[in-house]
Design a protein that fits this description.
The protein is an alpha+beta fold. Helix content is about 15%, strand content about 35%.
Length: about 280
Protein backbone atom coordinates (compact mmCIF):
# COMPACT_ATOMS: atom_id res chain seq x y z
CA UNK A 1 0.00 0.00 0.00
CA UNK A 2 1.34 3.44 -0.94
CA UNK A 3 1.96 5.90 1.89
CA UNK A 4 -0.41 8.85 2.05
CA UNK A 5 2.21 11.49 2.77
CA UNK A 6 -0.30 14.30 2.27
CA UNK A 7 -1.94 13.34 5.57
CA UNK A 8 1.02 14.87 7.42
CA UNK A 9 0.12 18.11 9.15
CA UNK A 10 -3.58 17.26 9.30
CA UNK A 11 -5.55 17.16 12.56
CA UNK A 12 -8.19 14.48 13.06
CA UNK A 13 -11.08 14.33 15.46
CA UNK A 14 -12.56 15.10 17.77
CA UNK A 15 -12.47 11.53 19.04
CA UNK A 16 -14.97 11.15 21.87
CA UNK A 17 -14.29 8.75 24.71
CA UNK A 18 -16.84 8.26 27.46
CA UNK A 19 -15.55 6.70 30.65
CA UNK A 20 -16.92 5.53 33.99
CA UNK A 21 -15.40 4.33 37.24
CA UNK A 22 -15.54 0.84 35.78
CA UNK A 23 -13.37 1.89 32.82
CA UNK A 24 -10.79 3.44 35.14
CA UNK A 25 -10.64 0.28 37.26
CA UNK A 26 -10.51 -2.06 34.26
CA UNK A 27 -7.64 -0.06 32.78
CA UNK A 28 -5.68 -0.25 36.03
CA UNK A 29 -6.26 -4.01 36.22
CA UNK A 30 -4.81 -4.24 32.70
CA UNK A 31 -1.69 -2.53 34.04
CA UNK A 32 -1.26 -4.98 36.91
CA UNK A 33 -2.82 -2.95 39.72
CA UNK A 34 -4.28 -4.92 42.62
CA UNK A 35 -2.22 -7.93 41.58
CA UNK A 36 -2.15 -9.47 45.05
CA UNK A 37 -5.66 -8.34 45.99
CA UNK A 38 -4.33 -6.07 48.72
CA UNK A 39 -1.95 -3.36 47.45
CA UNK A 40 -2.81 -0.43 45.15
CA UNK A 41 -6.54 -0.85 45.69
CA UNK A 42 -6.83 2.90 45.14
CA UNK A 43 -6.80 2.17 41.38
CA UNK A 44 -9.30 -0.71 41.39
CA UNK A 45 -11.74 0.06 44.21
CA UNK A 46 -14.45 2.71 43.89
CA UNK A 47 -13.83 3.85 47.48
CA UNK A 48 -11.53 6.89 47.14
CA UNK A 49 -10.73 5.83 43.57
CA UNK A 50 -7.59 7.31 42.00
CA UNK A 51 -6.77 7.39 38.28
CA UNK A 52 -3.62 5.62 37.11
CA UNK A 53 -2.20 8.46 34.97
CA UNK A 54 -1.25 6.28 32.00
CA UNK A 55 -5.01 6.14 31.38
CA UNK A 56 -4.53 9.57 29.83
CA UNK A 57 -2.65 7.97 26.92
CA UNK A 58 -5.68 5.86 25.93
CA UNK A 59 -7.52 8.52 23.86
CA UNK A 60 -4.64 8.78 21.38
CA UNK A 61 -3.91 5.05 20.96
CA UNK A 62 -7.32 3.40 20.78
CA UNK A 63 -8.35 1.45 17.71
CA UNK A 64 -10.65 4.17 16.34
CA UNK A 65 -7.79 6.67 16.17
CA UNK A 66 -5.47 4.15 14.51
CA UNK A 67 -8.01 3.24 11.84
CA UNK A 68 -8.95 6.87 11.17
CA UNK A 69 -5.35 8.06 10.79
CA UNK A 70 -4.42 5.30 8.35
CA UNK A 71 -1.64 6.77 6.23
CA UNK A 72 -1.12 3.52 4.30
CA UNK A 73 1.01 1.52 6.73
CA UNK A 74 1.05 -2.27 7.23
CA UNK A 75 -1.06 -2.76 10.35
CA UNK A 76 0.65 -6.00 11.36
CA UNK A 77 4.03 -4.27 11.52
CA UNK A 78 2.93 -1.33 13.67
CA UNK A 79 4.55 -1.07 17.11
CA UNK A 80 4.37 1.63 19.75
CA UNK A 81 7.74 3.46 19.74
CA UNK A 82 7.46 6.12 22.45
CA UNK A 83 5.11 8.32 24.42
CA UNK A 84 5.49 11.70 26.11
CA UNK A 85 2.50 12.49 28.30
CA UNK A 86 2.15 15.95 29.86
CA UNK A 87 -0.60 16.31 32.44
CA UNK A 88 -1.99 19.83 32.75
CA UNK A 89 -4.87 18.83 34.99
CA UNK A 90 -5.73 15.36 36.33
CA UNK A 91 -9.27 14.08 35.83
CA UNK A 92 -11.63 15.76 38.27
CA UNK A 93 -14.54 13.44 37.59
CA UNK A 94 -14.57 9.65 37.81
CA UNK A 95 -17.00 9.48 34.92
CA UNK A 96 -17.53 11.76 31.96
CA UNK A 97 -16.62 12.41 28.35
CA UNK A 98 -13.22 13.23 26.85
CA UNK A 99 -12.65 14.94 23.51
CA UNK A 100 -9.32 14.43 21.72
CA UNK A 101 -7.94 16.00 18.55
CA UNK A 102 -4.89 14.27 17.06
CA UNK A 103 -2.32 15.89 14.77
CA UNK A 104 -0.30 13.63 12.47
CA UNK A 105 2.79 15.76 12.92
CA UNK A 106 5.08 13.86 10.57
CA UNK A 107 6.33 10.63 9.00
CA UNK A 108 10.05 9.90 9.25
CA UNK A 109 12.00 7.39 7.18
CA UNK A 110 14.29 4.91 9.00
CA UNK A 111 15.31 3.09 5.80
CA UNK A 112 14.08 0.26 3.61
CA UNK A 113 14.63 -2.51 6.16
CA UNK A 114 13.91 -0.45 9.27
CA UNK A 115 10.51 1.08 8.63
CA UNK A 116 9.22 4.54 9.51
CA UNK A 117 8.35 6.57 12.57
CA UNK A 118 4.97 8.30 12.79
CA UNK A 119 4.57 11.23 15.17
CA UNK A 120 1.12 11.99 16.59
CA UNK A 121 0.24 14.77 19.03
CA UNK A 122 -3.08 14.58 20.83
CA UNK A 123 -4.80 17.18 22.99
CA UNK A 124 -7.56 15.97 25.27
CA UNK A 125 -10.18 18.18 26.90
CA UNK A 126 -13.04 17.56 29.30
CA UNK A 127 -16.68 18.44 28.70
CA UNK A 128 -16.11 22.04 29.79
CA UNK A 129 -13.35 22.46 27.18
CA UNK A 130 -10.50 22.54 29.71
CA UNK A 131 -7.23 21.09 28.39
CA UNK A 132 -6.37 18.12 30.61
CA UNK A 133 -3.38 16.53 28.94
CA UNK A 134 -1.20 16.53 25.84
CA UNK A 135 0.26 13.29 24.55
CA UNK A 136 2.98 12.96 21.93
CA UNK A 137 2.89 9.38 20.67
CA UNK A 138 5.25 7.77 18.15
CA UNK A 139 4.68 4.52 16.25
CA UNK A 140 7.24 2.42 14.38
CA UNK A 141 5.86 0.84 11.22
CA UNK A 142 8.54 -1.72 10.47
CA UNK A 143 7.52 -2.59 6.88
CA UNK A 144 6.98 0.93 5.52
CA UNK A 145 10.34 2.70 5.27
CA UNK A 146 12.66 3.43 2.37
CA UNK A 147 10.82 6.11 0.39
CA UNK A 148 13.55 8.73 0.95
CA UNK A 149 11.75 10.77 3.57
CA UNK A 150 13.26 12.90 6.36
CA UNK A 151 14.90 11.40 9.43
CA UNK A 152 13.59 11.91 12.94
CA UNK A 153 15.82 13.79 15.38
CA UNK A 154 17.59 11.69 18.00
CA UNK A 155 15.90 11.81 21.40
CA UNK A 156 18.03 10.18 24.08
CA UNK A 157 17.65 10.59 27.85
CA UNK A 158 20.79 10.04 29.91
CA UNK A 159 20.60 7.16 32.36
CA UNK A 160 23.04 7.67 35.30
CA UNK A 161 25.96 5.23 35.55
CA UNK A 162 25.38 4.67 39.27
CA UNK A 163 23.15 2.16 40.99
CA UNK A 164 19.41 2.98 40.87
CA UNK A 165 17.85 4.77 43.83
CA UNK A 166 14.85 2.43 43.62
CA UNK A 167 14.18 -0.94 42.02
CA UNK A 168 10.78 -2.64 41.84
CA UNK A 169 10.34 -6.19 40.54
CA UNK A 170 7.12 -7.68 39.19
CA UNK A 171 6.05 -10.70 37.15
CA UNK A 172 3.51 -9.89 34.44
CA UNK A 173 0.47 -12.21 34.61
CA UNK A 174 -0.11 -14.42 31.59
CA UNK A 175 -3.54 -12.87 30.99
CA UNK A 176 -2.56 -9.20 31.34
CA UNK A 177 -2.78 -8.45 27.59
CA UNK A 178 -6.19 -10.14 27.42
CA UNK A 179 -7.41 -7.79 30.16
CA UNK A 180 -5.72 -4.64 28.90
CA UNK A 181 -7.12 -4.87 25.36
CA UNK A 182 -10.62 -4.29 26.77
CA UNK A 183 -9.54 -0.67 27.38
CA UNK A 184 -9.63 0.01 23.63
CA UNK A 185 -6.51 -1.32 21.87
CA UNK A 186 -7.79 -4.33 19.95
CA UNK A 187 -4.73 -5.01 17.80
CA UNK A 188 -4.77 -8.80 17.23
CA UNK A 189 -1.04 -9.18 17.90
CA UNK A 190 -1.84 -8.97 21.63
CA UNK A 191 -4.30 -11.88 21.73
CA UNK A 192 -4.20 -13.92 18.49
CA UNK A 193 -1.36 -16.48 18.52
CA UNK A 194 -1.56 -17.23 14.79
CA UNK A 195 -1.52 -13.53 13.90
CA UNK A 196 1.40 -12.86 16.25
CA UNK A 197 3.40 -15.74 14.74
CA UNK A 198 2.75 -14.40 11.24
CA UNK A 199 4.50 -11.15 12.15
CA UNK A 200 7.49 -12.69 13.92
CA UNK A 201 6.32 -12.97 17.53
CA UNK A 202 6.59 -16.30 19.39
CA UNK A 203 3.30 -15.48 21.10
CA UNK A 204 1.05 -12.43 21.64
CA UNK A 205 2.94 -9.54 23.23
CA UNK A 206 1.84 -7.04 25.85
CA UNK A 207 0.60 -3.61 24.81
CA UNK A 208 3.26 -0.94 25.26
CA UNK A 209 0.85 1.24 27.23
CA UNK A 210 0.19 -1.63 29.65
CA UNK A 211 3.95 -2.06 30.19
CA UNK A 212 4.17 1.70 30.75
CA UNK A 213 1.33 1.41 33.24
CA UNK A 214 3.30 -1.13 35.27
CA UNK A 215 6.29 1.23 35.37
CA UNK A 216 4.06 4.17 36.24
CA UNK A 217 2.68 2.31 39.26
CA UNK A 218 6.22 1.56 40.42
CA UNK A 219 7.27 5.19 39.98
CA UNK A 220 4.29 6.55 41.90
CA UNK A 221 4.80 4.16 44.80
CA UNK A 222 8.56 4.81 44.94
CA UNK A 223 8.70 8.58 44.36
CA UNK A 224 5.29 10.10 45.08
CA UNK A 225 4.19 8.29 48.24
CA UNK A 226 1.48 6.60 46.21
CA UNK A 227 -0.18 9.86 45.09
CA UNK A 228 -0.79 9.72 41.28
CA UNK A 229 -2.24 13.23 41.16
CA UNK A 230 1.24 14.70 41.69
CA UNK A 231 2.50 13.34 38.36
CA UNK A 232 2.89 15.98 35.62
CA UNK A 233 4.92 14.16 32.95
CA UNK A 234 5.64 10.60 31.85
CA UNK A 235 7.96 10.00 28.89
CA UNK A 236 9.45 6.70 27.72
CA UNK A 237 10.70 4.67 24.75
CA UNK A 238 9.39 1.18 24.04
CA UNK A 239 12.57 -0.70 23.20
CA UNK A 240 11.66 -4.41 23.20
CA UNK A 241 8.43 -6.42 23.08
CA UNK A 242 7.39 -7.84 26.43
CA UNK A 243 5.59 -11.18 26.56
CA UNK A 244 3.24 -11.91 29.48
CA UNK A 245 4.88 -14.16 32.04
CA UNK A 246 8.14 -12.21 32.02
CA UNK A 247 9.57 -10.78 35.24
CA UNK A 248 10.68 -7.16 34.96
CA UNK A 249 12.55 -4.68 37.12
CA UNK A 250 11.80 -0.95 37.06
CA UNK A 251 15.06 0.90 37.79
CA UNK A 252 14.67 4.51 38.99
CA UNK A 253 17.23 7.30 39.38
CA UNK A 254 16.17 10.46 41.17
CA UNK A 255 17.64 13.48 39.36
CA UNK A 256 16.24 16.21 41.62
CA UNK A 257 13.19 16.85 43.79
CA UNK A 258 10.83 16.98 40.80
CA UNK A 259 12.39 14.71 38.18
CA UNK A 260 13.60 11.13 37.82
CA UNK A 261 14.88 8.95 34.98
CA UNK A 262 13.98 5.27 34.65
CA UNK A 263 14.04 2.14 32.56
CA UNK A 264 12.48 -1.33 32.75
CA UNK A 265 14.82 -4.32 32.48
CA UNK A 266 14.28 -8.05 32.21
CA UNK A 267 14.97 -9.71 35.57
CA UNK A 268 16.70 -12.70 33.99
CA UNK A 269 18.80 -10.61 31.58
CA UNK A 270 19.31 -7.08 33.02
CA UNK A 271 21.00 -5.96 29.76
CA UNK A 272 17.64 -6.32 27.98
CA UNK A 273 15.30 -3.35 28.35
CA UNK A 274 11.59 -3.31 27.62
CA UNK A 275 11.33 0.43 28.34
CA UNK A 276 14.23 2.88 28.26
CA UNK A 277 15.11 6.59 28.31
CA UNK A 278 12.27 7.29 30.72
CA UNK A 279 11.52 10.62 32.39
CA UNK A 280 8.98 11.43 35.07
CA UNK A 281 8.26 14.84 36.55
CA UNK A 282 5.96 15.79 39.40
CA UNK A 283 4.75 18.65 41.55
Amino acid sequence: MKLKLDMQGQTFGPFINEYTERDLMLFALGCGAGLNGKDELQYVYEKDLKVLPIFYVVPIVDTNVTKTIDFGFEYGGSLHWSVDLKIHQPLKQKQGKLSTNVLLKGLYDRGLDRGLLAQHIGETRDESGELLFTCESWDCCIYDGGWGGPKAKADIVDIPERAPDFEVQETVPLNQAVIYRLSGDYHPQHVDWEYANKFGHPKPNLHGVSTAGVACRHLISSLLRGDPERLTRFKVRFTKPLYPGATLITQIWKIDDKRAHFRVADAEDPTKFYLNFGVVEWK
